[in-house]
Amino acid sequence: MLFDFFYAILELKKVARKGWKEKVGMLNPESVADHSYGVAIMAMIFSDKMNLNTERMVKMALLHDLAESITGDFIPGEITKENKIIVENQAMEEILSKLPSHLANAYSSLWKEYLDGISRESILIHEIDRLEMAIQAAKYFGEGCTKEKLQEFVESARSEIRSKELIEVLDSISYK
After folding, report:
1. pLDDT at 128
2. I want to staple 96 with a disulfide (CB 3.0 to 4.6 A). Which of 4, 76, 104, 114 is the partner?
């Protein structure tokens, strides 16, 4: 049972972040697993810094894109938000069904908390998701991508991040 779960989630390593491919033209962009790792580390740091529930934050960060191991990565406008939620919920149910029920229920609850975006932790994970994207844009700039192609990602993050601690990091991004 656990082998099937681990085998399924490792597909995330092969799912390229579609926005970098389609909007920037990157041939070998980061994978969704790469992105999720960055989000998890940022969640750990910001949660500890802000005295939130770090265990819940890190778990939510690791779960937040797990459905994409089945669905692939969607970019804004490719699918309606309502359909995205339906498809990803079905994928999460399929993935979590490979776990013992007590674990599946606990992770399903965290997934729902993340989607609802009501708790301080889930709100912050959504913002960290955007911050990680903006920092990745800065990395791609440092690797030779043009500011014009990347600015959309930073501005998208800027429009969604409200946390003072995250804004401080976002404001330090420069294209020099």
Report:
1. 98
2. 104
**What are the residue ranges spanned by the domains of the chain?**
2-171
pLDDT reading at 176 higher than 70: no
Structure confidence by residue, pLDDT tens digits, 132-154: 999 999 999 999 999 999 999 99
Tokens of 48: 């500890």
How far apart CA 5 and CA 50 sit, in angstroms, is: 32
Domain 2-171 fold is Hypothetical protein af1432 (1.10.3210)
Tell me the two tokens of residue 37: 């790792």
Do 145 and 26 touch, CB atoms closer than 8 A?
A: yes
Ramachandran angles phi, psi of 98, nearest 5°: -85, 0
What's the pLDDT tens digit per position in 25-42? 999 999 999 999 999 999
Measured between alpha carbons, how far is 173 from 62 in angstroms, rounded to an integer?
25
Judge residue 153's burial from the number of C-beta atoms within 10 Å of its C-beta, 0-12 exposed, 13-18 middle, 19 or more buried. buried
Report if pTM > 0.90: yes
- Give the distance from CA 118 to its chain's centroid: 17
Cβ count within 10 A of residue 162: 10
Residues 46 and 167: their CA atoms lie apart, in Å, by 12
